[in-house]
Structures are given as C-alpha cells and as structure tokens.
Amino acid sequence: MSTQTENTSNAPSNEPSPKKGATGWVIFAFFVIGFGFSLLGGWVGFPKMLYTEVPHPIDFNHALHMNLVYDGCNSCHYFREDGSFSGSPTLNECRDCHGFVMGINENEEKFVEEYVLQDKEVPWNIFSKQPDCVYFSHAPHVNGAEMDCAACHGDIGDSESLRSYQENRLTGYSRDIWGWNMSRLGEPEHAPRMKMMDCVNCHVEETDSQGSCFQCHK
Amino acid sequence: MKIDRRCFLSLAGGLVAGHLLSPVPWKVTDDLSIWTQNWPWTPVPETGPVTWKNTTCTMCPGGCGIKVRIIKDRVIKIEGREDHPVNRGSLCPLGYASIQYLYGPSRVKSPMKRIGERGSGNYEPITWEEAITEVSGKLGDLRKSGKSHTVACISGSDKGTIPHLFKRFLEAYGSPNFIRTPSAKDAHETAAYLAQGKKAQNVGFDLENAGYIVSFGCGLLDGCGSPGYQFSSYSRFDKDHTLVQVEPRLSNTAAKAKKWMPAKPGTDGALALGMAHVIIKKGLYNRNFIENHSFGFEDWTDDDGNIHMGFKGLVKGYTPSMVSEITGLAAGQIESLATDFARAQHPVAVCGYNECTVSSDIDKTLAVHALNALVGNINQPGGMIVFSDPEYNLPEVEKDQIASDGTAKPRADRAGTAEYPQTRYLLNMLPETIMGANGNDLPIEALLVTDANPVYTMEDNETAQEAFARIPFIVNFSSFMDETAQFADIILPDHHFLEGFRDVPAPDGVGKPVTSLSAPVVKPLYNTRNTGDVIISIAKSLGGTIDASFPWNNYEAFLKQAYNDQYTDLSRSGYVVSADKPAPWESAFANERGKYEFYPTMRHTAGNDDKSKLPDFRQVDIPGDKTNDALVLIPYKSPRIASGAIANPPFMTKTIDADMLKHERLFIQVNPETAGKLNLKQGDAAVVKTPSGEATVLVDLFEGIMPGIIAMPAGLGHTAYSKFIAGKGVNVNALLKPVFDPTFGLNKAWGIRASLQKA
C-alpha cells in the first residue's frame, strides 16, 4: 500500500492523465446498438418467431361457390332455427353436393378422398376462433344491426383461394385476433382485429356502450 | 477507442429501452395469460349445434316437465317446461343438478356381481346374460322349493308401469310382497279410503287455484312433494292469497307464509279439530255438502239402536282455549284462523305431503281432510282432489298353482294381514320381522329393490341395515352406487332418466291427474338397461306361466299397450291430463252411503284403547326417556338438500349455507335459550344422543326454533355414491325411530327424544 501511494505522489503533475475509459460517444453508440437490436428484434424477428404459417387442410374457392348457390353467404353460413350461427359448414352439408368428385380440381379430389369418403370433418383453420367461454353471437350483428358479412369478413366471398393462416405458437389462436400489424395501429390488413378492446371500441362507437361482461364471457 | 464496463451497461440499457418500445413484453404477457387458459386439463364446454328436447324428471316423485339443452350429444342444461301442467316453468335444484348424476362417477356402468363384504362396494362387472341367468336361477330355485312368497320387492313408488311390472311379476311368480317405501301417501290414501270408500286413491291439493292455504307442517316451499308444482303455485300468489304455516320451526315455508303459527310439534291434529270447532260453532261450514253429501257429522244411531257420537260432538270439546293449551297458540289466533279459513275463497287445508318426517298419523290426516270437507272443498277448484290412477290396457296375469298359493300367503311386512287389515304397505315393519325370524325360516329370502334406497332412508337405520344384511339375496336396479346397491348381490343398473323411457303418473300432492312421459334425450352412456326390459327378460327366462304373463318383446311395447290410445298424445306432448274435472260429489264417494264419512264407519280400531273411529286427537308418545332425554329432535327439510332415495349432488351441496354444513360437519339448530342452559355456544361441537344412535354435530343458535326442540336437516350423511357425495354430515335417519300406529302399523313418530352435550 505504502509503495503505491509513494508512486502516485511522485508522478509528474504536468503530464496529461491517461484515458480512463470509453468516451461518451462510444457509450452512446453501444446504447444505440442495443436499442436498435431490440427494436429490430422485437418488431421484425419476434413476430417471425411467435407466429408460424399453418397450411390449410385444403384450399377453398369462395368465388366459385358463390356463383353456384342461390342465397349468397347464407347458403352455407346460416342461422339455425334457434338463432345460433352455423359457422363453417359441416361435412354432412358439403356432402350434399360433394358425394363424389365432380370436377378436376386437386383440392376437391383431396376433399372427397380424405374427408368425405372417410367420413371425417375437415379441420379448417378458423381465423376468428376465440378462447373457450368467450362467445360472439352473429345474430345481433347480422340480423339486429343489419351488418353485411363483408363489414367484418371483407371480400372473402370473392376470393379464389384461402389467404394465409398464421398461428400464434403460444396461444394457438390465429394472428388475425391480434392483427397482422404488431403495433395494432392503422387499419387492419385483412379483417377487423378481435381482441376484447376491439369489440369494446366498436360497440362504444356504434352504440355508446361497451356492453356488459356476460354478453360475451359466459 | 476503448471499450469498458460502461459500454456494456449502455448496451444493456439500449437493449432494455429498445425492448420496451418493441411489442415483445406486452405481447408475450398477453399471450402467456391466454396460454395458461388453454392447459389441456382445463374443462371446456362442448360446442356445436344446439337442440332442446322435452322430457320428465324422475329424480323425485314430483313429476316436473323439463326441457333439456343439448349441444352435440352432451346434455348442457335442464330447465322447467313452461307449458307443463305440473311445474309450469319452475324446477327444483335437484332437477337442475340431475345432469351431474348422468355424467358423475356414481353411475353403475354395467351389471355387477358382489365380490366383497356387504356394504364394501367391491363388485366385478358381469354381462347382462350372466346377470339375468343368475337372478332367474336363484328365483327359480326358491320357487321350486315352495318359497316363492319369500321374494319381496321394495319400490319407491307403486304408480306407473315400472312398479306395475314388478307387481305383475310377483303376482305371476307367486309372492304378495310388493312393498312401497313409506311416505305421506300412506296416511292420505288410508284416510281417503276410510272417509270416501275407494282404495289406493291419489290425494292432491289444487294449490294453483287455492285462495287460503293452511299447511299443517308441509314444507311446501322446502322442496318436498312436487317442488316445481308448489314453487310455481306460490309464484302466482298475490295479496289476495294467504298461506298459513303451522310448524314449530321457522322453515322457508314459514318465512314466506303470510302467517306462521308455531304450534308445539305433534299437536297439529288438535289444531285442526279446534278450527273445526270454531267453524261449526259459527255456522261457517258448507251446508249443502254437510247435509247432502256427508255422513256422521251429527250423532247417529246404527241398525242395532246404538247411538254414536258424530264429528260435531267430537269437536265440541276442542274449544279454542283447550286447543290453546295443547298447541301453545293463543286462543284468539286459533279462532281467527278458523274464521278466516272458512270465509275465504277456495280454502284448503294441507297436511302430510312434504313433511320432512314420514309421519303417517291417520287421526290427524282424517281431521285435516274433515276441515276440507267442512268447507265443501273436496274435488272443487282450489281444494283437496281425490282421483284414481290411469287404467292400463293389459291382459290378465296367468297364474299357476304356485303363484296362486304364494300370493295368498300373508305379507312379510304384515300389511293387509289380520293385524293391520287396512294398510297397503308397511316397510318399517320389515326389519323387526326379519330380525325376529330364525335363520332357516327367513320371511324374505330374496329382495328386489327398485327406485328406492331403504338402507339409507329407513329410520332406526342401524336395525334396518342389520335386517338387510340377513337377507340372503338382494338384487338392486339402481342407476347409482347408493347405500342399498352396496348391499346388493347383483346390480342390474337402470338407465339414467335422461336415457330411457318411463311413464310418470300422479305426481305427489298435485291436484290434477297428470301423467307424463320420461323419454330418452341422449343415448345411454354405459352398459345399462331399462328396468322394464330387465324384468321382462327375467320373466321370460323363468318360463311357464310367468313367461306367458309377459307377452312383450320389450318395455316400450309394453308401455304402448298399457296406454293404448293415449300413448300417441303422451309421446307427442309429453303429458296427458286424464280428466279435466274431478268427480262431482254425487259420484265421488264409493262407500255404502255414497257420502263423505266424518265418522269413518269402515275404520278398523282393534289396536286403539278407546275403540273410537272418530279422528280424535291422540298424542303420540315419541321414543325416548322423558327425564334423561330432555330435548326433542326433529328432522327438517331444506330445498337445497335432496333427502329421498337420491343423494344430494355436489352442485346442490355447494349451495348449502355455512351454518348448515361446514366442511364435513353438520350443524344442529338449537334455540339460544336451550343452548344457554346446556352451556353451548355458536359453533361448539356437541354430541346428540337418541334411543337410536348418536352423532357429533356443531351447534347453530337459531331463534326460529322452539326452546326444547333441536333440528337437523334430512338428506346428508351418505356413505355411498362417490367421494364427492359421501361423508358430508350426518344421516338423521340413524337417529330416528318409528312409532307404530297400533291399528294401521304406520309410523306416527314426528320426532324423537334426545340429549345434547358438549363434545
């Protein structure tokens, strides 16, 4: 200890002291690197990690079907007698027309062979699937508020192919629920976002009330 | 450029800052919370197309129409049917919770054969063919050895085609021993027979049209009888309707009544006679009915010239002041009750049905029936309605010599014998008879049990269990592993009522002849069979005249033939009301005089000391020592506890208040004054002792119960079913003991003497 003290006290006082560490700019640069890395990772890399593209069991051509049915969307997606909504058609409903392969379409061929003939329901990817015990009722929206299907589902009726379905690896739900844009800013890309606050905001806007919990949580 | 520690700190700072401005923390938090909701063991509701199907609940004898909400193939919800004439939309908690019995773990999933000790619940599954061969083999052997009369059947009801099949089977087989479990029906049908002349009648009360109801201890809103009927009738009450509850305890019914009259327990008969005294004295009775359609109101002289006192003479002595002394109610109250009752529109006096105890006091029941007769409200809107069962369109039973000999033998329960000639069923007598017999000469060698759980529901439960243990062969048809099923050698499980067919005639206490149909709403979940089908199979495998008496391929064919033309209506709307109007007075009474007999001339009185046939008030001496057992224990009924053959499902147990059941400990209601004398405080553990047994309970101080009386809810303390049902509270039947009417053999006990001491 005493030696060191002596050395220090014996050093010439007019010499510039050596650099003790990095300069402010270097430190700032490190901050920017960290900041940029996190931002880039969070906004670009993270969604790629979180979501995975899930192929549809078969492709479906809405436009083609719309030309063949009489009652538009209602022909296959209809209200049951008790007011509940049928959602995607069941195999039995499809079987009415697709008991055997009618055209030369590989998707139809796959549908008939793998599902119809094996009496197996098609495990469709459902873009709007919500957690259990969360209920959305089509009746008050379509029949009550007279909303068009397209108001929420966009121009799906004119599409010739199913659009990409991405699944959240953690939750198992579709990317449509949060919205494709991670920031949830701006207009939604494909269909309205379906987090709870999305429902609430629309309800407040349209009805001046966010509604009661049990309207959806049952 | 030098890189040091601060650079890395800065880098970390940058990473954190960037991270916070990226979607990662918020999105991951949100997604993790959703992830936790989707763990595979979390139960999730079924989704799919919804259907509603109508059927009838058979969890109790109430016969309520229900609608069942089904998603895909799973029953999701049960609600009362608004268009059903019994319950009109109402339903009791047991009806709502009956889904839990469909999917719960207490179901017997296939025929079973006992491999362990009785009561241990050790069974092995066998096939239906093996089970039926074993049962018919055993019954065939007994028949061959001339012991056909030692086969008995205990049934929860004697109404409907399933009990009818059992009765038919025993008749063809050669046994007189079809035994219905005790209920208030015993007293009502006996009283109706004595006063009106027809046997085995249904007695109901038209509560939906009644204007003034005096209930002698009926738990009208405590879940007895047909709760749906009573709830819906009460829900239509307005300020012009009056319900007066006579009961020593502030029950739900008493709390909701316009007036609660806490008469001393067991004195209601005296109150009814006191009311009759006032009504007659003030001339408020229905003169047309009394003069033209009744007999024995005034004193009368028989063919031998003997003068008999009439009903008027009997009640002369029951002045309000005397009745006040007996009941503890004020004389003025008694007088005004009688006056208001007689002056009201559609007054009706109700007793028996729905009491928590299965007291069947013939005198009291006759006295209450007489009150209805006095005001001319028998078979009138809002009155007491008496009607017959539907008649089945069936061929005669074919009987061989063994069957004729066997059915002519005296019954094992002594009902209908010279000892008790006017009583139809006396299950309470059976344990005594079995225990009194020697081992080689048992009165019951084989027992069939259907829709009943006597090992749990019988009073003096320990003796009853010992008696059942002596029966060499017990076959149970229960859908659930109940206490009696655990005593059985063979279990032949019936479907849950949502899975099978069955008719439900004459719901308990309902004032109209409604017959409903219980039809399957889902496919059977397990390897169970309709009991009707099983009885037909057993009959067929026994062969001979027994087989010939059952010319049906299955129960459904039998049911269709039994109801004949009515079956179409029954299956289309789910119910039929067989007659719109009850029989008019001119044709209602089937005795010799064609009149309502205030003096029941047919009444058998051999066992009575005074030999009087009039419905005098005879104090029932309940079991126990008056000096040592200073208190009186009464059981009570709660609408949230199923107290019959079916145990309380967990959904209902969840609704029980914390001052009735705390974890596994049951509370006993004690008046604070009584508790003070016994040095007991709220929540103290205490031992209640009666001549039948003892139990440890917790004390609940309750102002709504008379000093000196203590009360326990009926329906808890099960030991079987499943771990979710068993072991909660105490079975009050283990503490009670019947008191037999000397002439009718029916149980008259309304309580039992008891002592309570700090544990």
Written description of the protein model:
The complex is a heterodimer of chains A (218) and B (759). Chain A is built from nine helices and two strands; from the N terminus they run H-H-E-H-H-H-H-H-E-H-H. Chain A is mainly alpha-helical. In chain A, strands 1-2 form a two-stranded antiparallel sheet. Among the domains of chain A are: 31 residues; 90 residues, no CATH class. The longest helix of chain B has 17 residues. Chain B has five domains: 33 residues; 54 residues, N-terminal domain of TfIIb (Single Sheet); 234 residues, Rossmann fold, CATH 3.40.50.740; 176 residues, Dimethylsulfoxide Reductase, domain 2, CATH 3.40.228.10; 128 residues, Barwin-like endoglucanases, CATH 2.40.40. Chain B has 759 residues and is of the alpha/beta class. In chain B, strand 13 and strand 14 form a beta hairpin. At the A-B interface, helix 2 of A face helix 1 and helix 2 of B.
Structural descriptors:
heterodimer; A: 218 residues; mainly alpha; two-stranded antiparallel sheet; 2 strands; globular; B: 759 residues; N-terminal domain of TfIIb; 5 domains; 7-stranded mixed beta sheet; 17% strand
